[in-house]
Here is the input.
Amino acid sequence: MYELLVNDYPVAKMFNYGQMMTSFTINNAILKSGKQKITLRLYPAPAEYSRSGDVLSPNTSCKLEIEYVDNQNPNKQSSSVAEFKLPTKIRMAGEHNDMAIPEFEGAGKKYYEITYEFDATVPYVIDGWKKGQDLTKLDQKKLEEEVAKVNLNRKKEVEEKLINKIAASAYLPFKEQMVSEYETKEYITKSWKEYIEVYSNSTYKIQPLKDYKIVFFGNGKMVCLRQISNDIRLKEQSGLWGTYKLNGTTYSDFHYLYLYLPEGKKLEDGLEVIR
Here is the structure.
């Protein structure tokens, strides 16, 4: 089970037990060319699935490959940027203690985190959360109240189908994502239409805002609500979420409202959605 962050912004996570090889787009976390940081957070599998109990196994392994993919190429041609593997330590075993066995460095721990660096070249510069204030230095009680306020406002907008207000707060994050991923005009139009249609869906049901915690990202410049739940379907998901039906299938929709406070503004002025 893991969570992956780029420049301290979450880009992927998996909390159900299993082995998986998959790809993720990380451009949304890259604000400009230069040195980037990628962080891997590892959690042990449930005790019933592991001989190691509720700690990380010596056999834990993971390889991160960062690639540049040419979206304009019909074959999605890719080239390697960087590759990282988990560090290991040697355990001597055997009858004569002469057999060297490599084991995961974090074996025996309930949590393991490691950060690597890589260089990225991108044809854009976006502000993102760069000009945000360090929210960890503010009054935390007032901050939590403001974070909850933004989420409750979104809940009300969804319930009352105030589509224009939902669209207004989503516009900047959506725009920066499309810029970072070099998407075509046709794709952007289609994606925006699909996003809006979700909240126009008559079956959409927003869930109560409860059992959450505030979590910081972007080196303290972003904050969001995350669920306090051991249910693997909800673990570390957004505190605000809803469900809707489409063509007979029920979907979950998590409102990932990453909030920041621009430089020069006071907390009373209100937090803004940046991702």
